[in-house]
């Protein structure tokens, strides 16, 4: 969910414009009680756009900040809409890229202060499912996940899973429908990213040999794709030269399917 938070009448006008341009966005004008409501949005992992002074944002969010790997992306705009500041989770949460996207939408100047902001992210989707899960359910989950993260299908490099799903018709047909490569990996390959999983399922491990299919597949795919394309070095790397991918979205699930999104960077 994207929350656009405004505090003035002029800010509200800009907020209404943003909401009309961003899928899945809601305007929250003068939420009350302010600190408690804003902190609740943040703790719910909503992506936040503030139209107010940066100082107000920092004082409000300070009590609930954790780290750059967990905090959602936060942007700050002035009420004239001249600047879009990537304030929190620039790399890991995608705020840098999001600031670029929003600045293009409203004709503003992006302000990105993080060091070496890589501007060519590679996104990969990992999915797991019960046998014979319908394509329609897989597609609904995928599209909801992309919307949640402010991504489009055009930004996704591949759809991936574990090798025992190499013949899963729903995943195969969904990838074909979306014109995405469908890639599968064995448990040894997926096991190399085990330490980066947000959760571990003993049931899944006892069933297929990895602690999580969707997150493992997304992470390994992004890592492999970036390595094959040289990562930040512009030349292909050997399998012994590691590129560390990161989860953009932890595993989301329905009763029959799971989905996760990971990212790595090209220089």
Word description of this protein:
The chain is of the alpha/beta class. Helix content is 36%, strand content 25%. The chain has nine helices and eleven strands. It has helices spanning 9-21, 34-43, 54-61, 95-106, 135-149, 169-177, 187-191, 202-208, 213-228; strands at 2-6, 25-29, 47-51, 74-77, 83-88, 109-111, 120-129, 156-162, 182-185, 246-253, 257-266. Strands 2-1-3-4-5-6 form a six-stranded mixed sheet, with helices on both faces. Strand 1 (2-6), helix 1 (9-21) and strand 2 form a beta-alpha-beta unit. Helix 5 (135-149) packs across helix 6 (169-177). Residues 232-241 have low confidence and may be disordered.
Index terms:
267 residues, alpha/beta, 25% strand
Summarize the structure.
With 267 residues, the chain is of the alpha/beta class. Helices cover 36% and strands 25% of the residues.
| Total helical elements | 9
Helix content: 25-40%
- Structural class of the secondary structure composition? alpha/beta
Low-confidence parts lasting 5 or more residues at pLDDT below 50?
232-241
Strand order in space, largest sheet: 2-1-3-4-5-6
- Following the backbone from N to C, one meets helices and strands in this order, namely EHEHEHEEHEEHEHEHHHEE
For the residues shown, what is the average pLDDT?
Answer: 88
Spatial separation of the terminal alpha carbons: 29 Å
Q: Give the percentage of residues in beta strands.
A: 25-35%
Number of strands: 11
**Form type:** elongated
